[in-house]
Amino acid sequence: MTALTLSTAGAATLRADALVVGVAKGPKGPVVAPGAEAVDKAFDGKLASVLDALGASGADGEVTKLPAPAGLKVPVVLAVGLGGVPAEDESYDEDALRRAAGAAARALNGAKKAAFALPLEDASAVTAVAEGALLGAYSFTAYQGGDKKDKNDAPKGPLAEVALLGAKPRDKEHKAAAERAKIVATEVNVARDLINTPPNDLTPEAFAAVAQATGKELGLKVQVLDEKALLKGGYGGLMGVGKGSENPPRLVKVSYTHPKAQKSLAFVGKGITYDSGGISLKPAGHNETMKCDMSGAAAVFSAVVAVAKLGLEVNVTGWLALAENMPSGSATRPGDVLRMYSGKTVEVLNTDAEGRLVLADALTKASEENPDAIVDVATLTGAMVLALGNRTFGIMANDDAFRTAIHEIAEEVGEASWPMPLPADLRKGMDSPTADIANMGERMGGGLVAGLFLQEFVGEGITWAHLDIAGPAFHEGAPYGYTPKGGTGSAVRTLVRLAERTATGDLG
Ligand code: BES
Ligand code: MN
Ligand code: ZN
């Protein structure tokens, strides 16, 4: 991954391949942002007018490359747009900084070293710029450059080194902010790698092996239930979904504990390594990106690892409900009834509503340990994408205050989310003549129906929230800000911040 350093060097003296400066969108044209004074000086104070002449406005995400004037020790200056100029008594919005740093890092793909001279007013700005740069520098090239005869075919690596200018390496807060950003960005990128890995390679077994290897490295306890143990244990949801595949299901438990912890959290992730729909097969056009259906499990895994690396004073258990949803002679049929781990029976009306089945077992299992709260993360429904679009995840919960807290935390870390209800009247749509409940209900409000289904498997009295990340988990369009094409690592930052807040008892 990209290396990150805090540098005391001045913008005019540091040697690098590029120098990144911020430019805001002022009422009368572009305005050079604080942090870039020395660079502006090297342009004889004319950087803003040069940018204006080049047609740059300072709009969010805009990238302008300029040849550096004499006096700077870099060949290129890269001006990145920050959007509007903040009011007199306000500083630059953290996510605007994160996005700008991301856009700049992305534009410097293949470069060795870039110095970032963006406005760093306080430690949270350091976190934002560092995270943005490290997230924007991400690229997934593991499967490219296969033709060894053609050297030009080799993929460009990400920007190798980011030096933050204006951050204070001896300031405790700045140092901690940079360390935190490194850990969080690394783990978001790990989640992205897992999501982007093709489903022929990332099977439930392979995902479990990654968890075991990482757990060993970090001293985390990792327990894996394989298909034999799942069958014996009565995990009808996981087994029912996994039955049609040559790649059997797994339930992985990753535990992090801190000796001084007062609170415990359980994170539960949907880990469908490929969702074909099963016998209720998805049509072409709806299955090409379904390797992303384990994004919830990836987010949960990465978040637990980040919490461990941060050494937070809270116990966090991650549950990865891993299965591949495939059609075959051994697959679950629409009409089959499954006996879940909780004992409840479920009539499977649509084998494409598989996420709720694997999550149900994991939620019951997680509830047995009576954690202070459970949060599940899942690419659960197309309905949530229709409701909230491609960049916003939905939050449902059995506790209003908890739902609000998660919404605020997500906002704080720069993840778009919106609170959604669990209307009780939608429950009757899942009534089944043969079983306790069906895995499908009314089509209208499908995301909320799925949430209501999950709620039935949460232990009595346990605070629970459900994040439906089907929209933001996988980005199919052109990259923007710090968001690449493909897996985004959605929800990792929210889960980590929730753990931090839980550790400090500051949950609002
Ligand atoms: N994995 C899908 C949901 C999904 C859709 C994720 C688009 C990411 C992008 C889920 O398993 C699914 O197929 N849900 C069905 C449920 C329906 C059959 C009740 C859906 O949303 O159509
Ligand atoms: Mn499905
Ligand atoms: Zn699915």
From TrEMBL:
Signal peptide: none annotated. Keywords: Aminopeptidase, Cytoplasm, Hydrolase, Manganese, Metal-binding, Protease. It catalyses: Release of an N-terminal amino acid, preferentially leucine, but not glutamic or aspartic acids; Release of an N-terminal amino acid, Xaa-|-Yaa-, in which Xaa is preferably Leu, but may be other amino acids including Pro although not Arg or Lys, and Yaa may be Pro. Amino acid amides and methyl esters are also readily hydrolyzed, but rates on arylamides are exceedingly low. Residues 350-357 form the Cytosol aminopeptidase domain. PROSITE patterns: CYTOSOL_AP. GO terms for molecular function: aminopeptidase activity. It is found in: Cytoplasm. Its EC number is 3.4.11.1, 3.4.11.10. The active site is at 282, 356. Its cofactor is Mn(2+). Mn(2+) 1 binds at residues 275, 352, 354. Mn(2+) 2 binds at residues 270, 275, 293, 354. Binds 2 manganese ions per subunit. Presumably involved in the processing and regular turnover of intracellular proteins. Catalyzes the removal of unsubstituted N-terminal amino acids from various peptides. HAMAP family: Cytosol_peptidase_M17. Belongs to the peptidase M17 family. This is Probable cytosol aminopeptidase. It comes from Streptomyces antimicrobicus. The gene is pepA.
